[in-house]
Specification:
Layout lengths: L3 H8 L1 E3 L31 E2 L3 E5 L5 E9 L2 E10 L4 E4 L7 E2 L2 E6 L5 E4 L7
Parallel strand pairs: 1-3
Antiparallel strand pairs: 2-7, 3-6, 4-5, 4-8, 8-9
Length: 123
Amino acid sequence: MPTRRRLLAAAGLAAASSGCMSALGNDDGDASGDGEQSVGGSGDGAVRLERLSLQNNHDAGHQVQLAVEGKEGLLHMGTYELEAGSGTTVEGDWTGTTDAYRVNGRLDDGEIRSAGVTEGVGD
């Protein structure tokens, strides 16, 4: 089973130097290249998402639009204004529930990027 730290790293949207939305995949929005998810060999990508945070590591402020989806549909949608060097924790109804989460995000007026919470974990 993936560690809590790895899941938080995969779920977090980090606005980091050259690739502000790099945590959400390539230009096609596919972080792994094949779109498949797997955790602990189960193949369903189900995990417990305990905390989701947004970080802006740039010297300028940014707007982040965020949507979190589970198997049953949209669980959270919000827009966050992040000042330079700031961050925030995203509150949601997912705490304590095991699901196959997908995070969709847009930085400022850029394109929407998307990734499964477990994509890249264990690689």
